[in-house]
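2024-03-11 09:14:02 INFO worker-7 job=invfold-0412 stage=load source=structure_tokens
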């Protein structure tokens, strides 16, 4: 009876709540993994979805920026904040109304970033020749190759590049959350089990245990 009550209290105590929190984290990771796999199978849909979400984020950021600017009307940066918020609103409207064109622009920008970053890594690695020389050259070559491949197939590459990157990000983030959730539940279970074993070990030498103060009369009887 006492063991069942102890197990019930352990599930309802802080260990149980922490274990459920890690379980929810693992569940969220599984949802992200499924979303990433679906996005990899339907990269065109993932690209359009990403652009629409990006447009709504710009709109929300513009509205929040305007509210913050009007709340601080007496500051010296009032008009700058208004201009930035208006640009965010305008960009959000354009991205939502024309997600395909926005995807083409962002794909071109990403390809140029890959190309420029790869060239700088190659040049820096050849000039510095540090301890990570080989790894720097590999990263630079990969960036240049990726930028060239995206630019060579542009604008058709805009249909799958952004969706692929976004889906891969969801997939790896989900795997990371699953690993944290499962590992956390194991650690909590081990800590809880060690705590129960420690309580049982201390209880063995209690008043009712062998050798305790409550030992039978044979332990305290004097010989005749």
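2024-03-11 09:14:09 INFO worker-7 stage=emit residues=224
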């Amino acid at each position: 009876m006492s063991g069942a009550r102890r197990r019930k209290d352990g599930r309802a105590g802080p260990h149980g709540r922490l274990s459920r929190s890690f379980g929810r984290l693992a569940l969220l990771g599984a949802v992200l993994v499924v979303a990433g796999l679906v996005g990899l199978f339907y990269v065109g849909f993932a690209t359009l979805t990403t652009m629409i979400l990006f447009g709504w984020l710009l709109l929300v950021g513009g509205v929040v920026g305007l509210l913050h600017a009007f709340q601080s009307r007496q500051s010296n940066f009032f008009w700058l904040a208004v201009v930035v918020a208006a640009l965010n609103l305008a960009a959000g409207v354009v991205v939502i109304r024309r997600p395909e064109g926005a995807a083409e622009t962002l794909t071109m920008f990403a390809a140029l970033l890959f190309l420029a970053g790869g060239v700088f890594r190659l040049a820096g690695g050849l000039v510095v020749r540090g301890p990570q020389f080989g790894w720097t050259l590999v990263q630079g070559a990969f960036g240049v190759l990726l930028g060239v491949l995206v630019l060579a197939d542009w604008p058709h590459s805009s249909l799958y590049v952004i969706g692929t990157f976004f889906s891969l990000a969801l997939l790896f983030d989900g795997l990371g959350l699953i690993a944290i959730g499962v590992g956390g539940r194991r650690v909590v279970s081990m800590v809880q089990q060690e705590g129960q074993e420690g309580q049982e070990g201390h209880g063995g030498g209690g008043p009712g245990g062998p050798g305790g103060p409550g030992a039978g009369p044979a332990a305290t009887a004097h010989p005749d």
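2024-03-11 09:14:09 INFO worker-7 stage=report msg="Residues 161-203 form the longest helix (43 residues)."
2024-03-11 09:14:10 INFO worker-7 job finished
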